[in-house]
Amino acid sequence: MARMHVMEQSETQAIMSSMHEMLEKRLSVSSLAPCPVEFTASYVAMCATQSCGKCTPCRNGLRMLRHLFNDVLNNRATLETLDLIESTARTVYLSSDCAIGYEAGEVALMAIRGFRDDFEHHVTKHACGFSQHQTVPCVSGCPAGVDIPGYIALVEAGRYTEAVRLIRKDNPLPLVCGLVCEHPCEMHCRRGMVDDPMNIRGLKRYAVDHAGDYRPVIKPATGKRVAVIGGGPAGISCAYYLTLMGHKVKIFEQRAHLGGMLRYGIPNYRLPREQLDSEIQWILDCGIDVELNHSVDGDEMTRLRSEYDAVYLAIGAHADKKLGLPGEDAEGVMSAVQLLRDMGDNNPPDFKGLTVAVVGGGNVAMDVARTSVRLGAEKVIIAYRRRVADMTAQDEEIAGAEAEGCEVMDLHAPKEVVVDESGHVAGLKVEPQIIGGLKRGRPAPRAAEGGDVVVPCDRVIVAIGQDIDSATFEEQGVPCKWGRIVTDPDGAVPGQDGLFSGGDCQSGPATVIRAINAGKVAAGNIDNYLGFNHKIELDVELPPVQFKGKISCARCEMREREASERINDFDIVENGLTDQEAHQEASRCLRCDHFGFGAFRGGRIEQW
User: Fold this and answer.
1) pLDDT band at residue 323 under the 50/70/90 scheme
2) Which of 47, 215, 256, 388 has its CA 20 to 30 A from that of 128?
3) Rounded mean pLDDT of 556-573?
4) What is the pTM of this model?
């Protein structure tokens, strides 16, 4: 008889493993709309099945919580039951031996405290008081609320111009978003339960690339005038929708070109300037006036507010952040904001043969690192104090930088800029780090054993975020907090009649699609402030919905040019979907707007 056997997975274990994978996929795209009481009850019940039974708080406590939650759901509970749930969850959290117990207790405690009103509604009204309006998953994940299933259906039908018209009802910059959007919608895509989420951004780009020209319908002139200060995505979006509503809009832009961070924060290899200019010009041709190279100081702000019926502040976040390290003022140290601004103004620096150290771990850090390679840098090093897994940059941006030869030096915190006798950068001193516990939701590093390391370099580029230059407006009485302009949820600046604000200057540096939504929201509320209630209407008829079965089909990805080729120019890196890929990808859509997840309120195409 053999002493030992090679471990093989049994049929039961294989099935259980598949069930775990399916559960993981389901949770990863879970809607935020389900009843919190029922969701928590289901979670606790699942955790109870994982208990090994060794410690009493977990073994008995989770079973007790399961029964108590069921009492609430089955109308057998009283308000005292809720107190018992909280005390039991707290005991399980504090007393369980392992994560199976205390993590389950923590979730239950979070739920009973965070959703106390809804628990009480269940007890007293025998019904859920939580809003359970089932929005379409991908639409709820899109900050601008674009009708994603609608335009995908139009792409599948070959009606590309109508697809773009549908997108522009909520997002006037589909070309830009088809190239650089961070596509949060894909995180919520129900297709991820079956195989892979839809390539939504790729289909948007395909629609724009194949659409014909058209002109939007503009409502009769209202006689009202609106000034928009700032020509970035928030300002352009606000101007576009106000123009469609019949108001006369003029954009005042501080720089020589419109685009804001689209031009001065995103490199040409991701967002080609000629395509950006084309989309902006299409919007301006709707009848929007522009004044470039126009800075708005205190006196000018007073004039604009007196001459215009409303003013929208969308100045973005274009100021750089400092590391606060010795030697940071040396020659050869520059900010990512300055480098990308120079690139946007067609004034690139010469990095030929130099070693460049980039400090930061976000998308901007990857952008300046990859830009430095294209500017001729011999070596590019990205210094980051956390792990690569903790970087805020998108995975594809990190992979792109590494493919192009950038070296990622994670777990090394910048400590000092080393300066030579002539006052020029000679290196970057970094301190090795070890990852620690969570702080504000992210692992916090601390100094590791071992001495500091000096990275020899000729340039140091600081890419640790942007600040907002709001001092001029704060002096005019505009309320600000930590540099951000303070507004009400509708974008109105409190205490400042007729003044609205939005985008990065209000939220802090964020994504393009969030800035677009800020401009859209402001336009609707400015229209109301001016005494109107215009609707953005659309007459696009969507193709009939057909059930296509449950056949698995993997996602079509957009390919990139070879790294050895693309590092030599600033041409676009990413290739779009082919005709075959786009139509196959569009056919994968489960049409959650029709099957099983509720329809849009107010008709298939909502007005706003």
Assistant:
1) very high
2) 47
3) 96
4) 0.90
pLDDT at 602 over 50: no
| pLDDT for position 595 | 78
Four-way CATH pick for 137-215+538-587: 3.90.1010, 1.10.4030, 1.10.1060, 2.30.30: 1.10.1060
pLDDT confidence of residue 5: 79
Locate 491 and state its tokens.
């974008």
Query: Is residue 163 a contact partner of residue 521, using CB atoms and an 8 Å limit?
Result: no
Helices 200-210 & 579-587 angle (0-180, nearest 10) = 130
Q: Give the homologous superfamily in CATH for domain 225-318+468-529.
A: FAD/NAD(P)-binding domain (3.50.50.60)
Cα–Cα distance measured from residue 311 to residue 485, given in angstroms and rounded to the nearest whole number? 14
Residue 506 CB contacts under 8 Å (≥ 6 apart), including other chains: 484, 485, 486, 487, 491, 518
Domain range annotation of the chain: 34-125, 137-215+538-587, 225-318+468-529, 321-465
SS3 category, 424: strand
For residues 216, 218, 224, 225, the Cα torsion angle rounded to the nearest 10 degrees is 20
Q: Cα separation of 361 and 365, whole Å?
A: 6
Q: What's the pLDDT tens digit per position in 128-138?
A: 876 656 678 89
